[in-house]
Amino acid sequence: MRRLDCGPTTLSLFIGGEVECGPANLFLRRRGEQPAWTPLLGPASPTAFAAPAAGRLAGRGTWHGIEYGISLVLAADAPVWFWHVELSNASAETQELDLTYAQDVALAPYGAARMNEYYVSQYIDHTPLSDPRRGFLIASRQNQAADGRNPWCLIGSLRRATSFATDALDFHGLAGRAGEPPAGMLGELPGHRLQHEHSMAVLRDAPIRLAPAESLSAGFFGGFVADHPDATSQADLARVSEMMALPEAAPPAMPAGMPLRACARTLFSAAESLRALDLDAGSLRELFPPPWRHEETDEGGALLSFFHARHSHVALRAKELRVLRPHGQLLRTGRHLTPDESALVSTVWMSGVFHSMLTQGHVSINRFLSTHRSYIGLFRAQGLRVFAKIAGEWRLLGVPSAFEMTPESCRWIYRHADGEIQLRSAAHSGPHALTLEIESTAGPETAFLLCHHVALNGDDGNAPEPLAWRRDGDTLIVAAAPGSDVGRRF
Length: 490
Hints:
The chain has 490 residues and is mainly β.
């Protein structure tokens, strides 16, 4: 799902795309001694979809012996949406399952959400409500009024929700930086309110027990109110009966024989992250010769970060995986103390973002590469990312063993089971240039795949215009669309 809008308001906080799914998704989980889970939307899911028609998106899939149908149905006479899920046990054993719905929430003008998702999130009030029949529901109100209105939404289960979360930090945790699954899918949802910087309404349905050949209807719903002047209260539960009275609340019949198309899997959805190893003391001294300054250690005395040489700061993998604010650096060409239209600027991140928000002059207008929009690892394809072919398999370079920052460059060191890779991003002046160098410093010959999310045509790489590019020998030349901001200026 790309976006969920109603009039001038966007309900979803982030944009989903074909390369990787956005954070809005439904998850099917098998409970028990050998738990497993799968998303039902996006290129990582087993779902094949029919072409959207008449306010409905429908698909089918099979996973671990469970045959399922999924439908997104928009109500014709109210701003209400329904996710219907039909589950059927085609295996020979009884299955213990549950369903989880995660919906990122903005409730703001589209431009405001695209400018700063963290800022938009900080103004949303999430109120968990309890209904005798539906269990937990999450009411979300945007307290930062737009055009004098406070948009509001209510999300609930078509059966009975037993747990919830209100921020992606509680659902995903920090494990996504290292390519690990969401914490909320490996365990249970916290069941408390967190209002932080990744606004998300997450509901988990009551457990489902399906005997062989048994079927069940489940799903979730959401309702939107363009202006909710008052704070959320228990009185808002009266809206549930109004939404359940809509004809679209009933499970739709899945049309037989409809042509289906599976989502194309991509490296960003299928490839695992390269597992970087922690560096021992001898390796650290060899890579970063002492003396060291301002050494930081954890509770057990293990090294986390330090300064060395004239102006180098080194952060180790263990620190990146435990701090809320990730490690990054701004790289800028030129030596002017005042704004310079020719200067190039890039933001790099320890978690394998080797350039992002790459701009010339004004950082909001003349943008070449997209911004990395989530510090907890919701996205893998933004900015400049790199895959390495290790033992015949592509691996995404994510959190390294060590990350070195200087004013003019940053270095990533990936010590892995088969060798070592080092990458360096740098800013140069005379002429202005931003570079990326890759070296396989140990182990077998390695192939690399560099992926640039180009944002020249506006909307940080999500504008509908096709990218104009051509090859000139060993050079790729990318041009802005004539009608884009950059195209009009240059």
